[in-house]
Amino acid sequence: MILDDFIVLNKIGLYCSYGNFYLDPQQPVPYAVVSHAHADHAVSGNTHVYCTTATSAFMQHRYKKNAAYQFHCSDYGHSFYINDVKITFYPAGHMLGSALILMEYKEVRYLYTGDYRLTPDGTCEAIQLVKADVLITETTFAHPDTQHPDVIEEIKKLNHTESNIMLGAYALGKSQRLIALVNEYCKTKTILVHHSIMPFCRIYEELGITLGTYQVYDRKLMKQNTGNMIYMVPPMVYNSYIKAINVVRVFASGWHHLQKQNEIQLLISDHVDWQDILQTIAEVGPKQVWTLHGEGKHLQAHFKDQIEVKILN
Fold it and tell me: Metallo-beta-lactamase domain spans which residues (predicted)?
């Protein structure tokens, strides 16, 4: 029997009372199961953190000694218990180390997606969907009109200009994906990376991911070369250089509103779109769908009288 209160949302995050742990808590807790290392899912200061090895490495770089009292790292497909709840990680395809979290309790399977992506990406593990009775899915882009464009055609847009480019991207996950894509599809470009992004790139490479050619930003190099340079910066730097001259401004995101003032629109998302969510539901085969992060009302309407859709947020 599906337990309606197996996962409940409170001010700290998603709480499982049957295992006495949180999924991606927003404040430090005694027991945290973390899906991936982005800061909105992985906070510092937890006592015990259960995650993949890559997620642990990123958190320890970002938070140093405050990352957690103790990490418990598990490989994909290997199960462990927190109290009476059996937990297994599967690749989520969102970034390196990201995990779908399968929880089994009293013969019922609950699958929490965290952030996830179906499209292939050589810089992280390919998603592995598994069957579950309840799918707890993010709905960031869960609107019937939302369809992410082909990522290869998007990255090739950077070839349309020979001017130097300031490319805004999140430091962890997105930047590494873009470095690999530019190396593969924009071969005339030279990639310069902001110093804050470099440590994450090194961790990727230490974990066996090949990104291709890039180097830390050099102001002289950028000034001496008036074309075909890409300077990759995190969002804070990108926004602070709003009046930067002699560069084409580009920000990589699936959000259209972040593209309005950019000279090239680079619609590259690391999340599922509407069709991806429908495909996920078809493959997981849940009896119920619980939604998070975004709007679940369109899924409720789509699956009316077919599958129960419960909105948690």
Answer: 28-159
Residues 6+ apart with CB under 8 A from 243: none
Residue 148 DSSP one-character state = P
pTM to 2 decimals?
Answer: 0.96
Q: Are residues 32 and 99 in the same domain?
A: yes
List % helix, strand, coil for the chain (3-state, nearest 5). 25, 30, 45
DSSP 18: T
pLDDT digits (tens, 9 = 90+) for 141-190: 999 999 999 999 999 999 999 999 999 999 999 999 999 999 999 999 99
Beta strand pairing call for 288-294 and 264-266: unpaired
Q: What is the CATH number of the domain that holds 157?
A: 3.40.50.10710
16 found inside a domain: yes
Torsion of CA 55, 57, 61, 66, to 10 degrees: 80
d(CA 277, CA 143): 10
Residue 47 lies in domain = 8-145+271-311
